[in-house]
Every structure is written in structure tokens, then in C-alpha cells.
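Weekly structure sync - notes
Attendees: PM, LS, DV (DV joined late)
Agenda: review two folding runs queued last week.

Item 1: First target. Sequence and C-alpha cells pasted below for the record.
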Amino acid sequence: MIQNEVVLAGKFLTEALTTYETQLVETVWPEMWGYNGMYHEAISDLPFGTLKYTTARIDYTGRAVNYGGKATTLPLANFGINMDEYKCQVGVLAAEWTWQELRSEEAAQKNTFLPRTNVVQSYRNALEKGLREWMHIRTVFGDPTIGFTGFINNPYVEVINVTAGANGVTGTGATAATAYEWFRTELSNFRKNTRLTAEATAAIVDEDIRAALQRRFADNSNDGTPAQMLTNRAESPQLRKLTTVNEFGADIVRDVNGGNITSIGGVSIPATADLLMFMDSTVQNNIMRHYADIDTMPPFILDDGMTYRQIGLCATSEVIYAQPFRARLYILNKS
């Protein structure tokens, strides 16, 4: 009977998902650096359903004075506690299989001469990838439509607008020498303002900035490149780490399917701009977020009696900068 066929299709779906659940969990998507917790600390302790994540920030006050042996009013070592709240968001995605798709795959598995359709595994992989991508985008860009802040559009990140004329890296007429001098000057300024040591700064750049830092100082010479001079100096590297990510290009930042962001911190982002971030190279306990890893519900049948659906979900908090303004974002204009 057709009713029995539908029931058997559902049984096959449940068994098939159970068969390669472990294999799917181990799948790695290296381009999803926001989901994978690169360049920040990701802590998987967020319960599903949490609307806000609250942390306590302690500010100490008071300075010791010299004691001269006489009774006097002593300064006090006090502290104040501020409660910071960060929004949390849940991402949901579903995969669907029709009865015909499931029965076709089951028949193919029993017949070695028929090609494998793999609809169960393919749709389940798509479900996993879609949720990872959602968390990656929310981590990097947040969600400006609801005021959800991420890695770059964060109120604790200082944003600096660099005009094309002052852009010695990718601006008009920029050379290896101007790129090196621009980085050297701005790195020093960043370290002075944030009280970072010379060895503690990392930079995240887009592909155009990386290419600019690979220019040689002189044609056909062995003088090296700005990237080598900034990161490989034996006495004291000015940059601990230089990392290239595609998401720092203005085209992806502005893309409606990417960041969907046209300005950050009141600074407009032109379509051709480059983004550059200086930050403390030690992100533990400084840049972090809390998240709930991907979970799935048992497959269920829809009202039509012939379509099966599985729902996957994950959650993340906004990105937390525990040490405010230890990160600086440059918008480099080219024209």
C-alpha cells in the first residue's frame, strides 16, 4: 500500500541520518573563520533561547601616595562594576526530502547498477553549511537591520577614515616605500594609544592590501617587501601577525548577501575601499563571543503526508571586546 511506502520512506530517512551523523559533524569548512573561532575566542556555552548575555566589567580607581608618618586622609582603592549586555540570536534552517527522492535513493542503494543519488547526505550537508555560514556572517558583520554587532561593526572598535590622498598603501601612486611608511607610522600610533608593546600587534587585511605589501622596494633588487620588513625584523617585528581575509574587502562588506553594511562607526564605505584592522595579537579573554553549536531536531512529516523535513539551529551572541578600543579599523579610500 502507498501508505506503507510513505512510512518506510520516513524510517529510511531516520536511519540514513543516524548512519552518517558523526561523519557530518566532523566536516570542516575552513573558509568559515567566524564560525570556527579564528581571530577571536569562541565559547560554546550559550543555551538556546537566551536573549541577552550579560558580563560584568570592573573598573578600579585610586592611587597610592607616600606616607610621611603623620595622620592624614588616605586615598581609597575602590572599584566599580558595570554590567554590559550583549544580544543573542538564533539561526534556523530546514532541509526537506520528498517521499519520491527518499524511495529513489533507497532503491539505488539496493541496486549496484544504479547511480547513487545521495539526496539525504547532500541536503544534510547543505543544512550544516548554511548554518555555519549564518554564524560566520553574524560573527564578522553582525546584523545591522536589528542592531546586532559583530567583529568589525562593534562600538568598541575605533574607526578611522583614510582619504585617498593619505592612503599610502592602496591609494593612487602608492609604492612599497609609502606602504611601509604608512604602516610604520600607524602601528606606532596605535601602540601608543592602546599601551601595547611593540611585539603585541596583529593586522587583518584584505587581498588588495596584502598584494600592496608584497611589492618590492626597488625593481630587480633584493631589498625585500614591506610585509617582510614589518613582520620579519630580527630585532623587534613591528607586526606579530599579518592575516588576509576576503571579508575585509568593501565588495563583500557591502554585499547584501554578505555584510550588507555601507558605513561603520559613521564612516562611509565606498565600493572600492579596503578594510584594515589593528588589534592585540592575544585575543584570549579580549575578543570573544558565546555560541550554541549546531543541533538538529528529529525528522518529521509535513501535512501533505509525503514530505519530510529536518530543522537545524544554532545561536551566537554579539562579539564582545573585553578591553575596549584595543582594536582599530581603517577604511582606506582609493579615490
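Item 2: Second target, run right after the first with the same settings.
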Amino acid sequence: MNSRQFTTLVLSIALLAASGCMQLSQVVPAERPKVYQAQGSAQALVERFAPVFLVQNYHQTYNRIGSPVASRDEQGEEVITMDTTRPAMYWRVVKFKTARGDYTNLLYRVHFPSTPASLIPFFIGAGSNMGDMVVITLNAQNQPVLITTLGTCGCYTASVPTNFTPKDSYPEGWIGKPLEVYGETLPALLKFGKVKDPRLMVVLGPGEHRIAGLKVLPSAKVSARSFDLIPTELLPAEDLKRLPLGKGHTSLFYEDGALKGHVKGAWKPLETILLGWLCLDWVVGMDKVYGDPDNPMYTSLKPWNRYRSNLADFPQFLKYWDWGL
């Protein structure tokens, strides 16, 4: 084999590898959409506004929503994995006040087994046990005025107004165009008021499970005629801290030490290498518990804004991102 043939062979292998890896982020068009739909008993508002999650490339197990399971390995060490045969959506209700009035946040959280390692496309968030969160902010009349989406690490945060959002509460310079969020596009406005019995649909991209779209549909359209529906247990977020393990329980989150408040097994080494120095956080990108005062779910990489952009302090979060609710 001469040098030209060798070069051609190497390039061919590289192209084949690249095209194979690209399938990690490309949607398989022939696959019928799979939609995770909450089922179970919860507070009336929680059930009423629970979003549905449309996942793409369901045939790849890592794209499926799961629920955390605790076990021990051969050395007796605790291991957390996501059981995709028992998908779950975890909810929390948080009330807060601003100078303009009283509000309620409905928080919904889901988790996935992993994001695979990939150079083409480059998945900076490769790792295990990552999740997504949707926050629906209701006004005093229980009308949705803001939809906030993010990874449970605090990354890729975006807030989308609705037709109930007061015009004078928009950030300065808001131009009403679709939001570009690091390669994904979200709508500029969500129209809940013009849909009968509205249901928020969250579209998840394959591979990294990025929130790739938001839609408001009539609940009647979210049916088995349009999608393959996957029943998803609706559970209180506190259940994440009481996972069965042997004769006792454990938490999804580290409860002490340097990793306190982080999801067990969710370290993302590439984010640490590439971004840790920038935000002065050696576990940047590692998914977190909501509401730990020592481990804020910061939504800005600027280290001096770690607490100012904390999702769990929502009045401050709104102020930081220039929302005037």
C-alpha cells in the first residue's frame, strides 16, 4: 500500500466515524415520536400544568427518561443509575413575592442515563445521570407568565414569555424574535391564552438532551393518535432524597463533602477541563439539587454572579436576567 492509498484509507475511516457519530445528534425521521406524559396524584396545579416531553431517537437508550435507582457494586460502593423502564417526572411548588405581586413556580425535573462521549458532534456535556428542568411561573390568577428551561446543572438557561406576561416586565431591548440558545432555537412567545386546555410540550434533542423546542398544544392533541405515549410517574422532588438502598435509603445527591448538593455520578470531565478555569468551579456542569444554599444552581458562568443568577432565589434570578415581574 503506497502513501496515497494509506492516506485515502485513513480519510475514509475518519469520514465513516464522523458520519456514525453524527447520528448521535441527528433525528431519525422515520421513528414515530415518543412523548412522556405525567400520570399520578399531585397537587391540582401540578397536574394541570405538568409538561409533556417529546424525545427523539428513542431507540437509543440514553435518550430515554428514567428514574434514579441506588445499588452497590462488587466493592460495596454506592452506584446511582437511571432506570428507563420506570420513567418519572419530579415536581416541586415554590411560592415567591416581588414588588409587583405574588407568584408560584411549578418546577418539573427529569433525568437521563447518560450523554455519550462524542467528538463529532462534540458533546461537552458527556457523562451520566444528567437532567433537564422546566419552571412554569404563575401569577396570582394562576396564569403562566414565564417558562424557564435549563439543564439541572444550571446550563443553557432560557426564559420565554407568554401572552399573559405584562409588556412592561420584558427585559430592556427585547425584540420579540426566537431565542437562540447555544445552537437551539426556542419561540419568542408562548400563547397559552388562545389554546383550550393548554399543555406545554418540551422537545428534547437527541444525544445531549438539550431543550430544542417548546410548543403549546391542546391537551386533546396530545393523544395516542399523534404520538406513542409513555406513562411517566409524577413524584414529589423530595423522593429524590430517599431512594431505596438495601434496608435503608440514600439520596440522589451528595449530602456532605466537596460535592455536597451535586448529583451522584454526574461529573462531566470535559466541562471541567474546558470551562472549570473560566468559572472557577472544578465540577462545572455537574447536575445539582435545587435549593442548596451552599451550592447555588447558578445560570451564569461568571463566578462573581454565582449567587445573583441562582435559580433557587427566583426574585433575584428575575432581576439578574432583567425580567420585571
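Discussion on item 2: Residues 5-22 have pLDDT under 50 and may be disordered.
Action: LS to circulate a short write-up before next sync.
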